[in-house]
């Protein structure tokens, strides 16, 4: 494959050993204050899709504690196809781990070739 194959509109990066994760999105409920802007509903009523060929990468963990509580905050990144339907407010499940999308997904484009390999989606998990 030549570098020309990677120009905009060309193939995106795929992970040969990627895994499937689940994306949960709360179904919208009516907003009594503004009918044109529904609110996110309960996590008990979600729309779930499978995101295939994804890769979850470690980022960091940080412990915080005070006199009454101890937390561990874990940050990871989900890398997947740019067309994957994941956005702020969604929940990502991988095995027994559950992460939340609190930051906007970024899909960088190479400024020299226009190559658009993957989207990086910052994830957070809080324990404690």
What's this entry about, in short?
The protein is mainly beta and 128 residues long.
Number of helices: 0
Distance between the termini: 49 Å
Q: Proportion of β residues?
A: over 45%
- Would you tell me the structural class of the helices and strands? mainly beta
Based on the structure given, which CATH architecture is correct? Beta Barrel
CATH C-level class: Mainly Beta
Total separate domains: 1
Proportion of residues in helical segments: under 10%
What would the CATH topology be?
Thrombin, subunit H
Q: Helix and strand succession?
A: EEEEEEEE
Widest sheet: strand ordering: 7-6-1-4-5-8
Describe the global form. globular
Mean model confidence by pLDDT: 82
Number of strands: 8
User: Over the alpha carbons, how many angstroms does the gyration radius reach?
Assistant: 18 Å
**Uncertain regions spanning at least 5 consecutive residues:** 1-10
Biased composition (Pro residues): 29-38
Region (Disordered): 1-44
Protein name: Head-to-tail stopper
């Amino acid at each position: 494959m030549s570098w020309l194959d990677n120009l905009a509109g060309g193939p995106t990066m795929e992970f040969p050993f990627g895994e499937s994760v689940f994306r949960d999105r709360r179904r919208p409920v009516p907003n009594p204050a503004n009918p044109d802007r529904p609110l996110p509903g309960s996590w008990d009523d979600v729309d779930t899709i499978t995101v295939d060929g994804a890769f979850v990468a470690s980022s960091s963990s940080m412990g915080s504690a005070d006199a009454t509580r101890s937390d561990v905050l874990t940050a990871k990144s989900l890398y997947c196809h740019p067309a994957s339907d994941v956005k702020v407010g969604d929940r990502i499940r991988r095995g027994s781990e559950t992460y939340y999308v609190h930051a906007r997904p970024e899909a960088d484009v190479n400024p020299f070739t226009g190559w658009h390999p993957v989207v990086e989606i910052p994830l957070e998990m809080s324990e404690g």
